[in-house]
């Protein structure tokens, strides 16, 4: 009886020791030198910008990069976000990527707080010698690709662009319109804005309005409500924005996507090799970040 009790206590002690060892090992992995922390605004399956960023994260993980991700950053307060950065900095993280213009002020504050760490934003305007802003929309490549696809797909020669926030994607919408009218001068281009990335009701209303005005191709820049609303009209084709949404929506005829892993890799490798330069970098066609994908085509 006494021997059985001894072995039972010994087994519990061993399990506890293994658990502590596992926790310590997990912290060692996340905190090892050279690791990177990525913040994305929403969930990694939003069929929009956050998913594009999350897919970039997944690709780097597959390649062996030490990178972690914080989702739903837009739902957190600035003090909470700074506390997360501080905590990971203490654990040894020295590279931080903040995906989204809305995190520019946070990146600026964190960069000032940790001058020996490196920060990158996607489409942001943060400042600091240890900060680089990767401008995804400066060359309006997405608008160009969407415009070319819309001309190819449209039968009615009326096409639409349902956007989210004009100060962010206004240039892309302009390039879309210019491209369509250059290739089809007699076409009609409709552009509307929800004013908020999360306003699905407004996105649905604007999609219905554009289709009622004759659009048979609509670009879903705002959010997935554009794709869902257009799905009620069999004749209407949709161009998804940032990610391939054709798996969820059968009316998606083309996808303008971004390979965020290209940007992430560029930043991480520059820091690791001592080649980091702060400032602003305009993503160009040569970077092959923006691409057009047709459904059933691997990317």
Automatic annotation (TrEMBL):
A Pfam family of this chain: Bmp
Signal sequence region: 1-28
Membrane topology: Lipid-anchor
Gene3D superfamilies: 3.40.50.2300
Similarity annotation: Belongs to the BMP lipoprotein family.
Protein name: BMP family ABC transporter substrate-binding protein
Stretches assigned to the ABC transporter substrate-binding protein PnrA-like domain: 39-282
Keywords from the named record: Cell membrane, Lipoprotein, Membrane, Signal
Compartment(s) where it occurs, according to its Swiss-Prot or TrEMBL record: Cell membrane
């Amino acid at each position: 009886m006494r021997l059985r009790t001894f072995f039972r206590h010994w087994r519990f002690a061993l399990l506890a020791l293994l658990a502590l060892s596992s926790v310590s090992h997990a912290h060692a992995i996340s905190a090892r030198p050279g690791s990177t922390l990525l913040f994305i605004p929403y969930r990694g399956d939003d069929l929009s910008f956050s998913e594009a960023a999350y897919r970039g994260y997944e690709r780097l993980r597959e390649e062996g990069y030490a990178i972690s991700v914080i989702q739903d950053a837009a739902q957190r307060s600035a003090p909470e976000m700074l506390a997360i950065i501080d905590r990971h900095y203490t654990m040894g993280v020295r590279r931080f990527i903040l995906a989204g213009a809305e995190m520019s002020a946070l990146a600026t504050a964190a960069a000032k707080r940790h001058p020996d760490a490196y920060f990158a934003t996607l489409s942001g305007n943060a400042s600091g010698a240890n900060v680089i802003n990767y401008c995804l929309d400066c060359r309006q490549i997405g608008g160009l690709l969407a415009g070319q696809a819309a001309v190819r797909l449209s039968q009615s020669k009326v096409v639409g662009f349902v956007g989210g926030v004009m100060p962010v994607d206004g240039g892309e919408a302009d390039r879309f319109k210019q491209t369509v009218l250059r290739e089809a001068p007699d076409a009609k281009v409709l552009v509307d804005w929800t004013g908020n990335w999360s306003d699905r009701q407004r996105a649905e209303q604007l999609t219905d309005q554009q289709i009622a005005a004759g659009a048979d191709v609509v670009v879903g820049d705002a959010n997935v409500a554009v794709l869902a609303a257009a799905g009620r009209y069999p004749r209407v084709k949709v161009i998804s924005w940032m990610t391939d949404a054709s798996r969820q929506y059968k009316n998606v005829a083309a996808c303008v996507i971004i390979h965020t892993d290209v940007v992430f890799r560029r930043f991480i490798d520059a820091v690791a090799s001592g080649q980091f330069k702060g400032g602003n970098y305009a993503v160009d066609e040569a970077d092959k970040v923006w691409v057009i994908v047709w459904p059933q085509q691997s990317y």
